[in-house]
Design a protein that fits this description.
Blueprint (H helix, E strand, L loop, with lengths): L1 E6 L6 H12 L1 E4 L1 H11 L2 H11 L6 H13 L6 E5 L5 H13 L6 E6 L2 H14 L7 H24 L3 E5 L4 H17 L3 E6 L6 H11 L3 E4 H11 L2 H11 L6 H13 L6 E5 L5 H13 L6 E6 L2 H11 L12 H24 L3 E5 L4 H19 L1
Parallel strand pairs: 1-3, 1-4, 2-3, 4-5, 6-8, 6-9, 7-8, 9-10
C-alpha cells in the first residue's frame, strides 16, 4: 500500500493535483472536510457526533476524525493506497496518523508540499473570490488563513522532514508542469520503499527452489534462516552448535539466534530493494519480531505467499530428496519429518491466519512442475507489488 500526504497553503492547487494523483496511482482520497460531510449526510453515529459539535460552533475532536479516517481506509480495499489532503494539520495529528497506519500495518510513504510565494497565493485567491463571487474572501481573511496555515502546518512539515520523507515541490507553472514535478518525487520515494516478501509452505513444498528464483528475478535479498543456520553449523560457531541440536530433532531454533542472523543480513545490504524471507516467521512470536524489526527500519512486510501442498505429497518429496545429493540430515529420519510437519501445522498455520487478517496473503497451488509453480508465484507477485507500491 502506498500512502501520500499532499500539503500546501490555501490557493496552492492541492485539489487539482489531488485528482490527478488519485487517477494515476489508483488512490482513495481522504480530506477530513469531505469525509466529515459524507458521514453527516449518511447520518452515521460518527457523523451525528460531528454534526452536534459543529452546530454548537466547536471543532470536531481528533478522536472523531481519526475514527472516520480509519473507517474510510478499511472500506476502500480495492485501491493501491491513500492520498491525504491537508491532513495531518498539527504535530499531534501527525502522531495520531502514525499510530493509526501502524495499527493497519502500513505507513505514510511520502509528504509532498507545494511551495508558492505569498503574493502569488493572494493573487490566485482574490481572483477565485471574484469568479465565485465569494465576498467573504477579503485580503484580511486570506492573510489570516495563510498565517494560520504557516503557524500550524510548518511544524508538521518539519516532523516529516526529520523522518526523511518530506519533499518540497515548486507550485508555480502550468497544472501539468507541477504534476510532473510531483510525480517525479513520488517515483523517487517509491525507489526507497522496500518490497519485503514472506514465503510459507510446509517442509517439502519447494520454498527454497522457488524463493531463490523469485528473489533473483526481483533483485531481492534472499533470507533463509535455515540456510543461515546451516552455514553457522558448518563454521562450528556458537550459534551453529546450539542450532544443530534443535534442527536434528526437527524443532524450531530459539528466536534470539535467528534475529541476530536476520539483522546481520539486512545490515550488510543497505542498498537493497527489499528482502525475501523464506520460511520465516514460523511462529506468531516470530511474526511480531519480524514486524518490529522492519518497523525499526521504517519498513514492513509487503506481501505473504503460501505454497499449498498436501501433507502426503510433502512426505513423498522429502523421502525422495533423502535419496539425492540435496538431502538434509533431517530428511533421513521419518520421525523427524513427521515432527517438522506437525510443527508446521501447530505453530505456523496460526501465523498464516495472522496475515490473513491483514489481507496481504496469497495462497499458491504448489502442485505441478517447478516452472508451473514459479509462473503462478510470479503472476500473483505482480499483483501484490502493485498493491504494495
Amino acid at each position: 500500500m502506498y500512502n501520500i500526504a499532499l500539503f500546501g497553503p490555501p490557493g496552492a492547487g492541492k485539489g487539482t493535483q489531488s485528482r490527478k494523483l488519485i487517477k494515476k496511482y489508483n488512490l482513495a482520497y481522504i480530506s477530513t472536510g469531505d469525509i466529515l460531510r459524507e458521514e453527516i449526510a449518511d447520518g452515521s453515529d460518527l457523523g451525528m457526533q460531528a454534526k452536534s459539535v459543529i452546530e454548537k460552533g466547536g471543532l470536531v475532536s481528533d478522536e472523531i476524525i481519526v475514527q472516520i479516517i480509519e473507517k474510510k481506509i478499511k472500506t476502500n480495499t480495492e485501491v493501491n493506497g491513500f492520498l491525504f489532503d491537508g491532513f495531518p494539520r498539527t504535530v499531534v495529528q501527525a502522531y495520531i496518523l502514525e499510530g493509526l497506519l501502524l495499527k493497519l500495518n502500513t505507513s505514510l510513504n511520502c509528504m509532498v508540499t507545494l511551495e508558492v510565494p505569498q503574493d502569488q497565493l493572494m493573487e490566485r485567491m482574490l481572483e477565485r473570490a471574484k469568479k465565485e463571487n465569494r465576498i467573504d474572501d477579503t485580503i484580511e481573511v486570506i492573510e489570516n488563513r495563510l498565517k494560520e496555515y504557516k503557524n500550524k502546518t510548518i511544524p508538521v512539515v518539519d516532523f516529516y522532514r526529520d523522518k526523511g520523507i518530506c519533499y518540497s515541490v515548486d507550485g508555480i507553472g502550468t497544472i501539468d508542469e507541477i504534476f510532473e514535478r510531483i510525480t517525479n518525487v513520488v517515483e523517487q520515494s517509491l525507489t526507497k520503499t522496500w518490497l519485503n516478501v514472506v514465503l510459507f509452505g510446509p517442509p517439502g513444498s519447494g520454498k527454497g527452489t522457488q524463493g531463490k528464483m523469485v528473489a533473483d528475478k526481483y533483485d531481492l535479498v534472499y533470507i533463509s534462516t535455515g540456510s543461515l543456520l546451516r552455514k553457522e553449523i558448518e563454521k562450528g560457531s556458537d550459534i551453529g552448535l546450539t542450532a544443530k541440536e534443535y534442527m536434528e530433532r526437527g524443532e524450531i531454533v530459539p528466536d534470539e539466534y535467528a534475529i541476530k542472523l536476520i539483522e546481520k543480513q539486512i545490515q550488510t545490504h543497505p542498498d537493497a530493494k527489499g528482502f525475501f524471507f523464506k520460511g520465516y516467521p514460523r511462529t506468531i512470536v516470530q511474526a511480531y519480531i519480524l514486524d518490529g524489526l522492519l518497523r525499526k527500519l521504517g519498513s514492513s512486510v509487503s506481501c505473504v505467499f503460501n505454497l499449498d501442498v498436501p501433507t502426503l505429497e510433502s512426505i513423498k518429496r522429502l523421502t525422495a530428496r533423502s535419496k539425492t545429493e540435496q538431502r538434509r540430515y533431517y530428511d533421513m529420519d521419518t520421525d523427524v519429518i513427521i515432527r517438522r510437519l506437525e510443527n508446521f501445522q501447530k505453530r505456523t498455520i496460526p501465523v498464516l491466519n495472522y496475515y490473513e487478517k491483514q489481507k496481504n496473503i496469497y495462497h499458491i497451488n504448489g502442485i505441478g512442475s517447478e516452472e508451473e509453480v514459479y509462473k503462478r508465484l510470479v503472476e500473483n507477485l505482480e499483483l501484490a507489488f502493485k498493491h504494495a507500491r
